[in-house]
Amino acid sequence: MKNRALIIILAVALAICGSAGVFLYVRSADARAIAGQQAITVLVAKERIPAGTTAESVMKLVDKQQMPKSSVPANVLSELDTSIVDLVTSSEIAEGQLVTKALFTEAASLAKGISIPDGMIAVTVPTEAWQRAGGLIQKGSKVAVFDTFTVMDGKGNTPSGDGLSKQYERNQSTRLLLTGLEVLSVVGEKQAAEDGDVGKAIVTVAVKQADAERLIHGQQTGTLYFALLGGKSEVTPGNGVDNRSLFGN
């Protein structure tokens, strides 16, 4: 019995030693692998970080980890960089996500979680559900904008300026106004319904000044429709259609 107990004790001891040896080998192998690939310190979010969080506050919500330099983006942060000290996060940072300089923006360009791209401005257009692809358009969508308007003198493609007339003797035209716009936010039907505007939504897009002028003018003189773009959508400017050419006449 004593011999049997001794054998069992020795077996357990060998197993423990073997496991420890494997652990130490793997750990040293990982260290050698990282060392061979030039390890760098990176910042990783240890919890969800909301949009609009200051860079200084972000530092309290991250962990420092060692990773191979070749496996991380060039603009990854390893500490609080002086170039971002006065900035805030432009969007939510997920738990476990690497923290990079690209995730920060000026506080002035952020409103209610919206980050306005450099050189652009945000323009808002009120819409009905049928004017925004039945509610499929969301924040981050790419859209084309079509304008339907009453034609001046009943011919050509110049808006009359008096809105979309429903008089049968007046001619209307529909044309592509803008395309490739990024949607910054959509205040949807649920939020709008709380204000009594069932079916309405506010669509905010990022545009250059010239496109903002066209978008605003089109909204004032006609009716705008937002079309959702896919990765392979083909949209090109043209003369559009009017009452006379609708059926190819």
What labels would you give this structure?
249 residues; alpha+beta; six-stranded antiparallel sheet; two-stranded antiparallel ribbon; 4 helices; elongated
Question: How would you characterize this protein structure?
Answer:
With 249 residues, the chain is of the alpha+beta class. Helix content is 23%, strand content 29%.
Query: Per the principal axes of the C-alpha atoms, what is the gross shape?
Result: elongated
Average residue pLDDT: 78
Percentage of residues in strands: 25-35%
Strand-pairing-aware structural class: alpha+beta
Indicate the multimeric state.
Answer: single chain
Write the element-wise H/E pattern from the N-terminal end onward: HEHEEEEEEEEHEHEE
- How many strands appear in the DSSP assignment? 12
Largest sheet: 6 strands, antiparallel
InterPro entries: Pilus_assmbl_Flp-typ_CpaB, RcpC_dom
Protein name: Flp pilus assembly protein CpaB
Organism: Lentzea indica
Domain Flp pilus assembly protein RcpC/CpaB: 115-228
Short description:
With 249 residues, this protein is α+β, with helices and mostly antiparallel strands. The chain has helices at residues 2-36, 55-58, 189-193, 209-221; strands at residues 39-45, 62-68, 88-89, 104-105, 110-111, 114-115, 121-128, 142-150, 172-187, 200-207, 222-228, 241-242.
Question: What's the structural blueprint in terms of helices and strands?
Answer:
Blueprint: H1 2-36, E1 39-45, H2 55-58, E2 62-68, E3 88-89, E4 104-105, E5 110-111, E6 114-115, E7 121-128, E8 142-150, E9 172-187, H3 189-193, E10 200-207, H4 209-221, E11 222-228, E12 241-242
Antiparallel strand pairs: 1-2, 3-4, 5-6, 7-10, 8-9, 8-11, 9-10, 9-12
Domain Flp pilus assembly protein RcpC/CpaB: 115-228
Protein name: Flp pilus assembly protein CpaB
Pfam family, one: RcpC
